Amino acid sequence: MYRIPLKNSGQETRLFRSRVAVAAILAGLLVLTLIGRLSYLEVIRHGYYATLARNNRISPIPIPPARGLILDRNGIVLAEDIPVFTLQVIPDRVHNMARLLATLKTIIALNKQDLRNFDRRLAQHRPFQEVTLRAHLSEAEAAHVAVNLTQLPGVSLHARLRRYYPLGGVAVDTIGYVSRINQAEEQGPDGARYFGYHHVGQFGIERSYQKQLMGRIGFKDVEMNAAGRAVKILKRIAPHAGKNLYLNIDAQMQAIGEQMLDNRPGSIVAIDPRTGAVLTFVSSPIYDPNPFVDGIREKAYRKLATDPAAPLNDRALNGLYPPGSTIKPFFAYAALQTRWFNPDATYNCPGYWHLPHNGHLFHCWKPMGMGAVDLETAIEESCDVYFYHLAFKQGIDRMVRYLTYFGFGHRTGIDLPGESRGLVPTRAWRRATHRPWYPGQTVITGIGQGPLLVTPIQLADAVAAIANHGVRMRPEVVRGIENPVTGAVRYIPPFGYPPVPRRRKKSLGILIHDMSQVVTGPHGTARGIDWDHVLPYSVAGKTGTAQLWNAIPGYNGKHIHSDALFIAFAPVHHPRIALAVIVEHAGFGALAAAPIARALMNFYLLGHVHVRAENQTNGKILAVGGHP
Questions:
Q1: Could you give the angle at the alpha carbon of 68 between the alpha carbons of 479 and 268, nearest 5°?
Q2: For 576, which DSSP code?
C-alpha cells in the first residue's frame, strides 16, 4: 500500500533557515540604519542640535532702556522717566486668591477696574508667571505693602521706569506723549525695531524723534527648567539710555501764552526769524498727557474726545483758519513787485466796492468809508475796499503765486509729524470739483476770506520771512541732541529756503514801514497794545478779524463768529521774534490777540510780561485803533 508523507522535515528546515536569514539581514540593515542616523545626529549635526537644546533651555529676556529726557532751551525738564512701583502676584504660590485680594484691599486701594484687568491677565499668563495687579503705587502704598510682604505669599513689589511729564499740559502739543505699543504697531513696518519696548511715542517730539529717544534695548539670558520657570541669570547685556533733546521752546514763555489764552480755543506760535527756532508753540485748550502713558480710562478719554473745544486737536499744526486781514501784507508785497503799482497813489474808499458791470457790493469794515487811501493807510487802518480793488487788479493767479512763495499751501517742514498744508484756492482746485472760478472769489480772497485757509505755524513762518529780509527759515522745535554718556550736544543747524522773489529793492522796506504804522500810526489798528507809550522796542504787525458763518443750536438762521488774529515781529530793524496769535470766536484781533502778542514779546525781549489784565476787555483799545 502506497504511503503519502505528511511532513517534509528537510524542506521545513530550509524554509526556516531562509526566513531567519532574511530577518537577520533586515535586522542588520535596521541596526546599521539606526547606527548611521545616530552617527549623523551625534557627529555631523551635533552643533546644530546642541544649539537648539541650549536655546530651549536659555531664554533671552529684553531689558528696556531709559527713554531720553526732553528739556526746554533753559534746561527745564519737560519729559522724563521716573521710577514707579508695580504690585505683582504669582498665582501658583497663592493658596486662596480671594482671601489675598481681600487682605490687599485693606492695605492699598483696589478698584473694580484693577480687579477686572487682573482677572484678564490671569487668563493670559502661566500659573508660575508674575501677573500685574496694580501699577503706579505711591511711595506710601509701596511702603505699606513692603511692611506686610511676609503675610502676603505670592506677592512682590517691582520698581520700573515710567514716562512722566512734570509740567502737565504745558507744551503738550509740542512734546506729545508715549503710550503702550498696540498690536498694529507691533505688526507694522517698525514692529521689529520695537521688540522689547513697552511704549512708543504717539505724536509730537516723542514721535518724530522716537529713534533718538528710545535708546538701545538690553538683554539677559535666563536659564529655564522643563516647566518653563526661570532658574538663574546666565548673562546680562546692559541697555543704552536714549539721547536727551533740548528744545528751542521756552517753558516759561509757553506757560505765559497758555495762561493768557485761559483755555479758550486758539493758538500762539512764536519763531526766531533769524534761525527758525520755535520759541512758543501753543494749542489751546491744553490737557494733561500723563494719563495716556499707561492707558487713559475710557470715560476720561471720551470726555476729552467729545469736548466742544476739541483739546486733542493740535491747532498750531493743523488748525485751518481764514487769515482775515493778516493776509493783506502778503498781497501788498505781491503788488509791490509790479511796475504798474504805485504805493503812494490813492484810491477812494466810499465804504463799499463792486465789480465792473456787477451790482453786488463788497463792504468795508468802516461803513462810511475812509476816503482817499494809499498803501500805508490801507495797511495801517486795514481798508478792505483798497484790497478788494488790489486783488481784482492782480488776479488770483498772481496772488496764489506769491502766497506759495511765503509758504502758504505747503508744509513748513517743522520737525513735528502730521502738519497740514492749509488751502490756497486756485483755478485748478475749483476745476477739480467741476466748478468755475468767479471774480468775486478773487475779491474776497484779497481780504483773507473765502476758501483761503492757513495754519498758525504758516502765519508765523510767513511773517518771520518778512522780518528776515524775505528768507524763510525752516521752523525747528529741537535745538540739540545730547549724548547722555559723554554730555556732547549736537546742535541742529538752521536751514533756509530760497528767498521770496523781490523785483523792487525797496519793496520790503516799504511793507515793513507800513506794518509798523499798524502799531505806531495815529489810526493803527494795533495802536492799543502800546497803551502806556513806553514800549522800548519797535513792532511791525497786522491785525485780523476772520468772520465765520456757523449754525447756532436753537437759532434758525445763521450767526457770525469772528476769530481774532494778530501777526507781528520785533524789534523792527533787528528782529528777534516773530509770532502769530489766533483766538477763536473772540471778536477783534486788536482786542483779543494783540495784547497776548505784546506780553510774549515783552517777556522774550525784556524779561517780564508787564501787561494789564483789562487789556483783554478794554473797549478803548478798539476805539483808539479802529478796525482790528
A1: 45
A2: -
Q: How far apart are CA 484 and CA 265, in angstroms?
A: 38
Of 277, 271, 263, 275, the C-alpha closest to 315 is 263
d(CA 105, CA 112): 11
Are 360 and 440 contacting, i.e. CB atoms less than 8 angstroms apart? yes
Q: Which active-site residues does the annotation give?
A: 325
Domains by residue range for the chain, with CATH: 77-161 (3.90.1310.10), 251-625 (3.40.710.10)
512-529 pLDDT tens trace: 999 999 999 999 999 888
Compute the C-alpha angle 386/391/392, nearest 5°: 100
Say which amino acid occupies 566: F
Distance CA 197, CA 211 (A): 12
Which distant-in-sequence residues (6+ apart) come within 8 Å of 80 by Cβ? Answer: 69, 70, 163, 164, 166
**Residue in 327, 286, 319 with CA at minimum distance from that of residue 420:** 319
Q: Is the pTM of this model over 0.85?
A: no
Q: Which residues contact 447 (CB under 8 A, 6 or more apart)?
A: 324, 325, 327, 328, 384, 387, 388, 391
Task: Using the predicted structure, report yes or no on whether residue 266 has a pLDDT greater than 60.
Answer: yes
Query: Which amino acid does the sequence have at 35?
Result: I
pLDDT digits (tens, 9 = 90+) for 421-449: 999 999 998 888 888 888 999 999 999 99
498: which 3 cell numbers?
530760497
Residue 451 has which C-alpha cell?
476758501
Residue 226 corresponds to which cell in the numbers above?
Answer: 522643563
